[in-house]
Amino acid sequence: xxxxxxxxxxxxxxxxxxxxxxxxxxxxxxxxxxxxxxxxxxxxxxxxxxxxxxxxxxxxxxxx
Length: 64
Known about the structure:
By secondary structure, this protein is of the alpha+beta class. Helices cover 47% and strands 28% of the residues. The chain has one helix spanning 3-32, and strands spanning 39-47, 54-62. A two-stranded antiparallel sheet has the order 1-2. The chain is elongated.
């Protein structure tokens, strides 16, 4: 395996996940009128097709 190629591909994927996820959350909060207080309980599930990979991240976003 070419480590440099793998790392670049992985970073590109993670950047796309981060940017598009942030945009989706911001858009949802604006359109749903959820701003102004409270917390949004979040859960992200990462899977890879054809593998047993399942990585779950849970957390809260403060809506201020």
